[in-house]
Write a structure and sequence with these properties.
alpha/beta, TIM Barrel, Double Stranded RNA Binding Domain, eight-stranded parallel β-barrel, 19 helices, binds 3-methyl-2-oxobutanoic acid, binds zinc ion
Length: about 525
């Protein structure tokens, strides 16, 4: 194997993160290029071996963000996904080749269901298209991964035939996806055992696993594949992804680490960075982390019952199999206030697991002082939200300059908003509505000329106390796509209006980076057949 490969240690599992590709495919989880870059840098700090940065052929915006990550992020292999067509492979390669270590990930469905109903291709055509695509990708790039999509529902004999043929054509990693989350740990182990027994040169490639969580077994199935010889696990932060999501990175990594004596496998992940990375992804994608989520949920290390608390006081190992600090969780009840200085803030930020460059620290310190003027005590949740939010200006062209609202019970509320656009012009607009938040939303829509359908609106408190900050989250639809925006303030009308502006900014940005349309997806079958 050449140096482009992630690792050569037999017991070391390669962690392939697909938060920015499969994770982004969760409805409403689309991210802006600057947000993707921020996550990619956090993934590199976390120690992942491979970052699947996106699907460059999906849109111009996708190509650009994969290319930016390939240019800016040092350390991990940067991977781009491609369907089995020259056009896709060329786009993937041109986006990633600037990275010191890069990989093309080619896929083509192999199951009877996909062959018949999606691709309308016979087995021989699939075999030929897969081989041609891998051979072409390999002519450009030494590191080529191939995924027989829906492998877990593919006839074993045909799966082995395809895998053997693509290895001969130059694939260096063979990924076996459970695309629809259908398999079980025992069954999946048998699939890997079958491939190991029946595929020539299988020991010359890295075997990989990619599980979806439709039956809640993505982590278990991935671990089972690792026991059967898989040495790459594909996963996402917080398990985000299509439908019920993908194998959760933090869970699979902590299972391997906590039960190392059982699995005998290691990863290169710095587990102390799991919690901050999970918070970052949750904030950027707007996908909240369930309180009882393993490893990174709010309750993952909380002990409620008296018997458990008693045991914990005697010795933590009575009811704890991992320490909170192992995953980067070091929350305290230490409270900061307006007299706290830059040094105290920097220390607290560091203890929370964030390492901010000086310019970012200055921004957070200024916002900390402004918040401390409005709020007596600042808790960990407040500090975290200041660190994780890059500020409205980073998201897009529109910014709220002023917002005025008035409401009297029994009559319509009114709002007047003044917005600044990054091209230098300003717009002032008034509207009435059913309450001040509704009036603000209407004024923003009129001012920007973008009308949206509000599907869901939530307000929750970020920390405790009477003067707690309120986080507003809006979920909307525009041109059949879903978007989400969120913002935090001690004033919930202000946070709601800012969340609405964030959505408008995301819509504005996505005009450049729309995901594949239905018609493009329909062309998948044809693309698989053409020109390779
Ligand atoms: O779930 C899946 O099959 C995929 C492939 C592209 C690997 O995401
Ligand atoms: Zn997937």
């Amino acid at each position: 194997m050449d140096s482009n490969h992630a690792t050569t240690d037999q017991n070391r599992v390669v962690i392939f993160d697909t938060t920015l590709r499969d994770g982004e495919q969760s409805p409403g989880c689309s991210m802006m290029p600057a947000e993707k870059l921020r996550i990619a840098k956090a993934l590199a700090d976390l120690g992942v071996d491979v970052i699947e940065a996106g699907f460059p052929a999906a849109s111009k915006g996708d190509w650009e963000s994969v290319h930016t990550i390939a240019r800016e992020v040092k350390g991990p292999i940067i991977c781009g996904l491609a369907r089995s067509s020259r056009e896709d492979i060329d786009k993937a390669y041109s986006a990633i080749k600037i990275a010191a270590r890069h990989r093309i990930h080619v896929f083509l469905a192999t199951s009877a269901i996909h062959r018949e109903h999606k691709l309308n291709m016979a087995k021989e055509e699939i075999l030929r298209a897969a081989v041609d695509a891998v051979r072409y990708a390999h002519s450009l790039c030494a590191d080529v991964e191939f995924s027989p999509e829906d492998a877990s529902r593919t006839e074993l004999e045909f799966l082995a035939q395809v895998v053997e043929a693509v290895i001969a054509a130059g694939a260096t990693t063979i990924n076996i996806p459970d695309t629809v989350g259908y398999t079980t740990p025992q069954e999946f182990m048998e699939v890997f055992a079958y491939l190991k027994q029946h595929v020539r040169d299988i020991d010359q490639v890295v075997l990989s696993v990619h599980c979806h969580n439709d039956l809640g077994m993505a982590v278990a199935n991935s671990l089972s594949a690792a026991l059967a010889g898989a040495r790459q696990i594909e996963c996402t932060i917080n398990g985000i992804g299509e439908r019920a999501g993908n194998c959760s990175l933090e869970e699979v990594v902590m299972a391997l680490k906590t039960r190392e004596s059982f699995y005998g496998l290691t990863t290169g992940i710095n587990s102390a960075r799991l919690y901050p990375t999970s918070r970052l992804v949750s904030t950027i994608t707007g996908m909240p982390i369930p309180r009882n989520k393993a490893i990174v949920g709010e309750n993952a290390f909380a002990h409620e019952s008296g018997i458990h608390q008693h045991g914990m006081l005697k010795h933590h190992s009575t009811y704890e199999i991992m320490r909170p600090q192992d995953v980067g969780l070091s929350r305290t009840h230490l409270v900061l206030g307006k007299h706290s200085g830059r040094h105290a803030l920097r220390e607290r930020i560091r203890e929370l697991g964030f390492d901010l460059p000086e310019a970012e620290l200055n921004r957070v310190f200024d916002e900390f002082k402004a918040l401390a003027d409005k709020k007596k005590e600042l808790f960990d949740g407040d500090i975290e939200s200041l660190v994780l939010r890059a500020g409205d200006s980073a998201v897009g062209p529109w910014l709220i300059e002023t917002l005025w609202t008035s409401a009297t019970s029994g009559s319509a509320a009114s709002a007047v908003v003044r917005l600044a656009h990054s091209d230098g012009h300003h717009v002032e607009q008034g509207a009435t509505g059913d309450g001040p938040i509704d009036a603000s939303f209407k004024a923003i829509e009129l001012a920007t000329g973008i009308s949206i359908k509000l599907n869901k609106f939530e307000v929750r408190s970020v920390t405790e106390g009477e003067d707690a900050q309120g986080e507003a989250i809006v979920y909307v639809e525009h041109n059949q796509r879903s978007y989400r925006g969120s913002s935090i303030s001690t004033n919930i009308i202000e946070s709601s209006a800012r969340a609405y502006i964030e959505v408008i900014n995301r819509i504005d940005a996505s005009r450049n980076s729309a995901p594949p349309t239905h018609a493009q997806l329909e062309r998948t079958a044809q693309l698989a057949k053409v020109t390779v």
